[in-house]
Amino acid sequence: MTQTPTLSLWLVYMVRCHDGSLYTGMTNDLSKRLLAHNAGTASRYTRSRLPVVLAYKESQPTRGKALQREAALKKMSRPQKDRLARPAKTQAKTQAKTQ
User: Fold this and answer.
1) What confidence tier does 98 reach under pLDDT thresholds 50, 70, 90?
2) d(CA 59, CA 53)
3) What kind of architecture, by CATH, is found in domain 1-77?
4) Which of 33, 50, 55, 56 has a CB 3.0–4.6 Å from the CB of 16, allowing a cystine?
């Protein structure tokens, strides 16, 4: 009997903290990681800025690609991060105004 390989999906995400700051991370279990952030056990940065809410996520095929993308997001300027983290409705309105 052959087993099918399990697809390990990695996610790069940004959460918006209570103080308005953004935290970027990666995980293969987003719901568990968000619970850990809001329990104060995921990172020192978010622990003092609770609660956090998911602002952005994207999937990556491998852990290595997720690490690379996380690093790229962390190097972005705040306005670039804010554009990614905007709700889809706001992005659609902005695009409609510019067309």
Assistant:
1) very low
2) 18
3) 3-Layer(aba) Sandwich (3.40)
4) 55
